[in-house]
Specification:
Elements: E1 2-8, H1 13-16, E2 24-28, E3 45-49, E4 53-56, E5 59-62, H2 70-90, E6 99-102, E7 107-108, H3 117-128, E8 136-140, E9 147-148, E10 151-152, E11 154-155, H4 161-171, E12 174-178, H5 179-189, H6 193-200, E13 204-209, E14 211-213, E15 217-220, H7 229-235, E16 246-250, H8 257-279
Parallel strand pairs: 1-2, 1-16, 2-3, 3-6, 6-8, 8-12, 12-13, 13-16
Antiparallel strand pairs: 4-5, 7-11, 9-10, 14-15
Helix pairs in contact: 4-6
Length: 282
């Protein structure tokens, strides 16, 4: 069964959990958060999105677990291992088994990489070097043109569903399925999003949801972009066959501003689809 979740930061978590019916909270961590200990117990499931940036010699670097650059690769490994240690230390304050979500890397800022095999190989070795113990480690599917440093980049890996499945099988790893990213990928690859989602469902253990436009318009408010949510939730019915719950978290661009108006609106709209899904009305 699909259950609602909500993305939070340490500065707003106590306020947010009182405003909604979420069953899970997902912390989007920065590297600075990894020194913040959680002292209060939350009767909720939890996910931790690993930091996307690290620092080296005073420079802010986009982490890249698939990088050929030895320094960047090792800095990324150091940060993700630090994240795992942090989760292991603080998971006693939540229900269940924590999920740790990581971007796969493999981005370039201007030129697309034609031969991506070395990037997938690097990422595979990276995963094998992690000790995430009994926590659940998930890779997130990526949009073709993600936004970093305020600009549009290129994702060279983890965009195509067939490549994602092959990697999951080869390295025994599952994914966080980002539906907005999936839609952007399908527009870019000229694929059907419902088939794309259906293909990835067997490897999906967590979901991010938002609408989208084009190939780089991610995080659009639910119902205000191109996605046919009725059709997507019909595809998601397969999750109902599982013996455990799967959590869905809305990710809306600037959804935390204006007293979290966008995020709470997305949660309400998402909940309506979840109720319809349970009633088999979509």
């Amino acid at each position: 069964m699909i259950k609602p979740g909500l993305k939070v930061r340490y500065s707003d978590v106590d306020k947010i959990v009182k405003l909604n019916n979420a069953c899970l909270i997902e912390f989007h961590l920065s590297d600075a958060d990894l020194i913040t200990n959680i002292s209060e117990y939350y009767d909720l499931f939890v996910a931790f999105h690993a930091p996307e940036y690290t620092f080296n010699n005073g420079y802010r670097l986009l982490i890249d677990p698939a990088s050929n650059d030895e320094i960047l690769y090792n800095k990324s490994l150091e940060l993700i291992n630090k994240t795992i240690t942090y989760v292991e230390k603080n998971k006693v304050n939540f229900k269940g088994t924590p999920k740790i979500i990581m971007h796969p890397g493999g981005m370039s800022c201007d030129t697309k990489v034609d031969d991506t095999s070395i990037l997938y190989k690097n990422l595979g070795k990276f995963i094998q070097r992690l000790n995430y113990k009994d926590n659940e480690f998930l890779l997130e599917n990526m949009p073709p043109q993600p936004w970093f440093y305020g600009g549009s980049w290129i994702s060279n890996i983890f965009v195509d569903d067939e490549e994602i499945i092959e990697f999951c099988l080869n390295y025994d790893v599952n994914i966080c399925l980002d539906i907005s990213h999936a839609g952007l990928a399908c527009n870019y690859l000229n694929k059907d999003i419902n088939t794309y989602i259906q293909n990835l469902l067997p490897y999906t253990q967590h979901i991010h949801i938002a609408d989208y436009t084009g190939t780089n318009g991610e995080g659009v408010q639910i119902g205000e972009g191109e996605l046919n949510f009725n059709a997507v939730f019909k595809t998601l019915r397969k999750i109902e066959e599982r013996e455990y719950d799967l959590h869905m978290v809305p990710e809306i661009w600037m959804g935390h501003t204006d007293e979290h108006k966008g995020m709470l609106m997305a949660l309400d709209r998402m909940n309506n689809y979840i109720v319809q899904l349970e009633n088999k009305d979509v």
